Amino acid sequence: MTATSDRPVAPADVEGAPRPGRPLPVDAGDGRAVAASGRWSRYLASGLVLGLTLALGFVAGRLDAGRAPARSAAPQPAAHAAHAPGGLQVSQDGYTLALGPPALSAGRAGELAFRIVDATGAAVTRFRTTHERLMHLVLVGRDLTGYRHVHPELSPDGTWRVRVTPEAPGPLRAIADFWPADADRAVTLGVDVPVPGRYAPRPPAEPQETIVVDGYTVTLDGGLRPGESNQVLVWLGRDGKPVGDLQPHLGAYGHLVALRHGDLAYLHVHPAAASRPESVVAFGVTVPSAGTYRLFFEFRHRDVVHVAEFTVTA
Prior knowledge:
The protein has one helix and 21 strands.
């Protein structure tokens, strides 16, 4: 299914493949996407058009309404296809995710506070902007339920804070994706946040190609083969018509986070720079191993961000 992203080649300012036999839709020259195969026609006839092609890469990534996202003066993170998945360690590359005192309860809003500390134990206070934010925090239950992608606020002392309402008791995985100002690349750290109460994990959802979320019909076309670059298409429809006017969301026309069932290894995918809201958005991803992955596809339409969730077996 879907996911793609790549780690930056050059840092941003401080503070701030097609698979054989699967042709991509091509541009008609007037901004419309035209099918390069009969499959496009079939989806069009059934009311599911607008392809978003997603090429899933490795670790880290992230729209403003009504217009194509402006090209940033500073380079944005590129793909990290060659890197291992992130979020498995609390410390890496000389940085540690240090949680504040636990203050969360199931079903109640509470504050999650943490700091990023360096090898000397000092709080890091300067970060680079990646995908329009200084910090991207993914929160999800250990059973891959209750997904949310939030952006904490940074205090002068280096403490990050965000309001969170856990859905249920049990360990909540927090995955922080950030770029320290003095580092030469972004870092992804993960830690379990305790939520008191009886933990009753849910089994993984069954794989499905098509789901309906918030009135949108979302179809993932493509599979994941470990160690290979996989092409994935995302088709969006609403009320029997294609959705061709997506809005930018954190600098791109869609994002995909992939989490591996079991250890919650993290991959963040975003579309190619040339993508447009009404044509196919292309990504290529290489998953690290066989297994079950939960994919969270984020897209923005009519000023609202939606998340479509899929289970995929590689």
